[in-house]
């Protein structure tokens, strides 16, 4: 077999099932814009059509969608390699593009209206590839060019599948780090976009209750920068009393905000500042000088969510839906 001159990765929805394999194609689709081949062979023309069709789309999404449509319609060529990680059976499917782009208006799946005929040459388990290769084809994009691990995939196209079943320590560590980072990002983005500022304060109060405190959200007027008050006993008479300020933002919190919270803390009380983002160096230095002040940034908040998630009520868990999974751990640890 002639070696493919370029490699393209593509994702299709799970509900297409085995149809692309059985009918020898790959496809993408934005059904509302119709046939992209009817538009001028120009990214800007595709962008304009997308803007017209999806006026509410996020600003950054339009150029990405236009690039995917343009590349699928005009840059993939017969003889190029196609790598399709199937969600339905978790196989890595390797094929060769055999024809120009077509439009199938009667396609059963709207996500595959624009199609490319493919001759499939191999269907391999994910375990046949290194973690680095799997990570590359796990791209969030619908269509992307494969470059970093091209040699490994080209060997697979040629029938040379190496034994990569034994994942090395670094590979396992990389998997764990990627899962952790992606989950942190998901948790913090949900806390930013899925609830209001006031609901975020109630979420923090619920988290404190899951940690064993009694917590209540303060009234909006005259709270002195304090959004939540927490204490160990039901009535709030026993120390320590914790005053919490919540900022539902990814912006960096500076020292003046921490000083404002500190000004609302009486003798014997504690203060805690919770945010989705981070704190400036001056703010961290101020915390270090104040033994009764704690700063909880985004990653620390996510860690508290994981640690006490099981004690949150179902309604609170619904804000950040999570499930327990196992990921590779460090080798050699008892």
Keywords:
334 residues, single chain, alpha+beta, Trna Endonuclease, Chain: A, domain 1, 18% strand
How would you characterize this protein structure?
By secondary structure, this protein is α+β, with helices and mostly antiparallel strands. It folds into two domains: 7-169, ph1033 like fold; 187-317, Trna Endonuclease, Chain: A, domain 1, CATH 3.40.1350.10. The chain has helices spanning 19-22, 43-53, 61-75, 131-137, 150-157, 169-193, 197-210, 255-263, 281-289, 298-308, 314-317, and strands at 7-10, 25-28, 81-85, 91-97, 102-103, 114-125, 143-145, 214-217, 228-231, 242-247, 270-275, 293-296. The strands form two sheets. Strands 1, 2, 3, 4, 5, 6 and 7 form a seven-stranded mixed sheet that branches. Helix 2 packs across helix 3 and helix 8 (255-263) packs parallel to helix 9 (281-289). The two termini are 48 Å apart. The model has no long low-confidence stretch (mean pLDDT 89).
Distance between the termini: 48 Å
SSE ordering: EHEHHEEEEHEHHHEEEHEHEHH
Tell me the name of the CATH class of the largest domain. Answer: Alpha Beta
Which residues sit in consecutive blocks of at least 5 with pLDDT less than 50? none
Q: Which structural class best describes the helix and strand composition?
A: alpha+beta
Categorize the overall geometry.
Answer: elongated
Describe the main β-sheet briefly: 7 strands, mixed
- The name CATH uses for the topology of the largest domain is ph1033 like fold
Radius of gyration: 26 Å
